[in-house]
Amino acid sequence: xxxxxxxxxxxxxxxxxxxxxxxxxxxxxxxxxxxxxxxxxxxxxxxxxxxxxxxxxxxxxxxxxxxxxxxxxxxxxxxxxxxxxxxxxxxxxxxxxxxxxxxxxxxxxxxxxxxxxxxxxxxxxxxxxxxxxxxxxxxxxxxxxxxxxxxxxxxxxxxxxxxxxxxxxxxxxxxxxxxxxxxxxxxxxxxxxxxxxxxxxxxxxxxxxxxxxxxxxxxxxxxxxxxxxxxxxxxxxxxxxxxxxxxxxxxxxxxxxxxxxxxxxxxxxxxxxxxxxxxxxxxxxxxxxxxxxxxxxxxxxxxxxxx
Length: 307
Hints:
The protein is an alpha/beta fold.
């Protein structure tokens, strides 16, 4: 890559330099990035200084309050570096494919619920089938996963709508249920209408899941009476076990229910879609495609059986 600045052609920036900047962005530490790449801290500092000299601007700064952070131009450079580094990976994959090998790295973004529900089985299956492929996990909220997709921090994300800005592949479509304590009066009903929940204390699942629930209430001219908000479904289930409210989620997302915690079908029937998302299906790597196909084989079949 040639960097043009003030009429001069600067030195070619190599793969190792680009990877270092990406590792610093991921670890937010010169020391940790150096350890991952087997570089000393002084060598890391010299390399960063060399890159900034070639670019003619600071891309990384440090202060006591924020630690290491990227400047505004640094964030834009980082997006380009990730694109370039991904192209390097594609070259490695092409060469490996000629030798009959599957190699590469897949950066996967998912919220905690999706991480625990989907990724262990996907990773185990891929390790058996593609032992030379590496999977790196990025765990955060659904909104964070979408941001990581936009900035190409991750190759593929597990998200729920709205997701029109990405290329998506349907993974699951599951019916929403109302989860409550077995002593709750609503448990006596076979199904629960959304209007039955108008005065109920709602334990709201956050992290991106709440948008669909608010929309559901709004579509029926209702406002949910939110008593608690939680990042993890396990927290919500513990609240419900103590009789502190009800929540709306999917049967599979709630996992193994604690004692005295039960669910009923919600009416009108409403589904939550879970999708695999990438920036551009046409340009994704073979490693990313292998991850997607593995996920579909493991979970899309379950979805067909349920429906």
